[in-house]
Amino acid sequence: MSQVDLSFPLLSLLSKERAVYGLRNGDHERYRRHCTNKIHRLRQTTGQTCGKGKQYKAPPKLDIESIKDVRHLQLLLFSAERSLAHSHEIKSQISKPTTHGSKKDQISWLRRSLKSSTELFELINTLSESNKISQRTKAEMTIYHLSVRSELSFEKSDFGACLTDLVVVRKLLSVLNENSKNSYDEALTNEFIDQKDPLIRFSAYKLGRSESHDIVGIVSDLEKDGDTLKDSLPGLEGLIEGLKKELEKDNDVSKDRIKLQDTSFAGEKVEFRNPELVKIMAGVQEVLGRFESKKNNKKNSTTSLKGWDKVLTVLGEAEGVARRLKDDHEASGSSTSLRSTQITSSLNLAHAYIVHLLLSHRIKRDLSLIDALSSNLQGSLPPNVGDIKIKGGRTKIEEVVKGLGGIIKLLDTVLQSLRGIAELSIVQEKEGVRVGVEGLEGYYHALKCFQLARLHCLHPTPSYSSAISLLERSAVSTHQARSLLSEPPIEIEEPIITIPAESINTLEQDIRTLDIASKKGLFSQSIEKPVFFDMAFNYIDIPFDEIEILSGKREKSTTIPSTSAQGVVADSLNVVRDKTMEGIKKLGRETRETTPAVEFRPSASTQKSKDAADDEEEEEGEAKGGEGKKGWLGGWFGRGK
């Protein structure tokens, strides 16, 4: 009968459970409820229930003979986790005014957690003697047990015992890290190391160590004093030797070790210290490797959209995971004052690197689409940039307009991605990367303005003035791109796309050619007169004298006309007015005018004589009207009399 193997990945199980069920966000209540439900299910499956009935019946105690399944060990593990989560929940609520817990309750729950972990630790040590438990599981259980014990010592202000236990934990984690068979295990150990580093630093500070900021130095100093570590964990050297032998044997058996490729950005190494992030980045590197191999095997430069979509999908998922991890870590800062700067910096750098990778591949995808559209428009566009007339009728014109519109939209997306890259902190901190991104932004902005100006010229209703304005902006951006890409002030790092100097020269020449053609089209353009433009000259005489004076062809007369001359002019105007009114009366239109009447403004002397004549006419009219009026309303009621 084969021996039952009761080994299980303890650290990996804890990392997944804590990450999924709220502990990563600092939601200790949610994690405590999850542990309670987990214990209930494990008791049902293992038969370790409290019995049925009104009276409480203690579950049977676990011993070596009764342990037949891994779930028996996990039952004790999650019992310790539930008590630990309850302690953390009380600690987070102590500072609140409406709290129901105290420091005493917190330490009480920590003691209960230590009791469960000690029981599990002793069971695993006993099982390892009969080779039912691997050395890796034993080491991971030792790490967990010492972590709980060090936390209890920390809360009781016993910083010496806490520091010793934490150094032993870090030593075991370092052994697992150095002999990890894949990048996931390496990131898993890094995660637990980063969690314990703040406690080591604070405990060393409380003990009065001057080098409290140097964690590696503290660990090396305590390792020299072997007796202290042996007192903390008897049999430490034997555990480390057995663990190394087992890990070396496992690494020899597993030839296909899954390792992430070393990643660097502008000379700075990018570390992925989170297991979840390592897992998703392994998939990203695999997809990128297959895509690059297929791309190199193809003869044409463009690849299928399916390949690009798969790459961008995987990178989008990786960016979402990295952003969530970063946000969760920032949110958890409010629940604890001991935060690892290593975790913060690594998550920020990893997220920025993934965003840069995503936007870079999005730019390459858009440029491949632009190349495909440009090749399709080769037969419809005029071969010469200066030719602004399209041959082939309305169908060709519509095809060119739609094609150029699509290219302009893609260039706009490229510029948007470049602006997103320029806003990243890792780009702004690296001068060589920033210069390259700004140069690309200037080049593609010039290219977009050039294509938009060409569209204005080739459109059925061209706008040459808009094209000229766009070409001026394009020339400025081209000059900026040349100064940053062809003659950079510093060596460009992490180039996204390499723009040769010939491409910039060609773009400048095309801009000059199209500028000349658009100016010729602007000056040769005939402007149609507006509707009813000539109708005004039927009623208004053009003041040619004033126009000649304003144009400078004739000098303005400085002589002041005399009063007699003004009177002559006024008399002539009155004569013209009288003749006009007589002509209108002959036509029978006394009450309605179809044309606007001309307003005459005579001189002052003529106006006085006219007013006197008007007064006489009014008096005669009143005398005649008085005879005809026989009642109210001007004689209306007196007509019959």
UniProtKB/TrEMBL annotation:
Gly residues bias (residue ranges): 631-641
Main localization category: cytoplasm
GO biological process terms, semicolon-separated: SRP-dependent cotranslational protein targeting to membrane
UniProt-annotated location(s): Cytoplasm; Nucleus, Nucleolus
CDD domains: SRP68-RBD
Superkingdom: Eukaryota
GO molecular function ontology, one term from the record: endoplasmic reticulum signal peptide binding
Pfam families (UniProt xref): SRP68 (PF16969)
Keywords noted in UniProt: Cytoplasm, Nucleus, Ribonucleoprotein, RNA-binding, Signal recognition particle
Region ranges (Disordered): 585-641
InterPro entries in the record: SRP68, SRP68-RBD, SRP68_N_sf
PANTHER family for the chain: SIGNAL RECOGNITION PARTICLE 68 KDA PROTEIN, SIGNAL RECOGNITION PARTICLE SUBUNIT SRP68
Protein family according to the UniProt entry: Belongs to the SRP68 family.
Chain's role: Component of the signal recognition particle (SRP) complex, a ribonucleoprotein complex that mediates the cotranslational targeting of secretory and membrane proteins to the endoplasmic reticulum (ER). The SRP complex interacts with the signal sequence in nascent secretory and membrane proteins and directs them to the membrane of the ER.
Record-given protein name: Signal recognition particle subunit SRP68
Organism, scientific name: Kwoniella bestiolae CBS 10118
